[in-house]
Amino acid sequence: MILHRAIAIDGPAASGKSTLARILSQKLGLIMVNSGSMYRAVTWKVLQRGIDPNNREAVVQALRDMELECGVDGMVSTVKVDGVDPGDELRSEEVNAHVSAVSAVPEVRECLVSLQRDFLKLGDVVMEGRDIGSVVFPETPYKIYMDADPNVREARREEVGEVDSVAARDHADSRRETAPLKIADGAAILDTSGHTIESGVAAALEILRGQGFAMPA
Ligand code: CDP
Ligand code: CDP
Q1: Does pTM top 0.90 for this prediction?
Q2: Does domain 6-209 sit in CATH 3.90.370.10?
Q3: According to the model, what pLDDT value does residue 217 have?
């Protein structure tokens, strides 16, 4: 089996993970995987079926009943549930409100971590989430933990008109028993509060060089 490289990007909501991962994917020719969209897709299906997202047993049964299909389209990960791409509904107010509860279910995590590791069979990846450096790819030397002031992060979500209780999600994601959000061993911290997108990307590239990531010529 060919072993490809993985860049792991973790951090709280609106710290800038997706933005950085998208740009690194384009600059470095990596497959971009948004692991959050996979947790959101499971949550979307649970809600669609009228299941209580806080009822663990019911969530596990729903997970067993659904067919999750991951793929790549133009170097960006895709996810379908029972043949349907939920699209913008992944970022609805309802999904935002319940995704942390569904993500805390160990069976959900086990299933999605396995699908996430499979992306590495396809090529070099940049994957962003909460537990990528700590659980999904603990062995990778390329790890960034992104952060930003909580007020800055709330403002970023409001700016794009998204209804999201960032603080509540961060609280739940950091306190859960299985794979909580934390700074992975070996991760470099990048605080984007005072960065523009451009200067944040430059700082990330510097970190990756320092971690020994060979840049394309
Ligand atoms: O984009 P944003 O940071 O707001 O969220 P996201 O990355 O789409 O993740 C949505 C939710 O999925 C998070 O609040 C976590 O509850 C969960 N998640 C997780 O538990 N583990 C991951 N690797 C990625 C997301
Ligand atoms: O994926 P995550 O939830 O961590 O964040 P995101 O979806 O990339 O959103 C971060 C927001 O902050 C976007 O609206 C960016 O335009 C903005 N931003 C950034 O990502 N990096 C900076 N250095 C400054 C602003």
Answers
A1: yes
A2: no
A3: 79
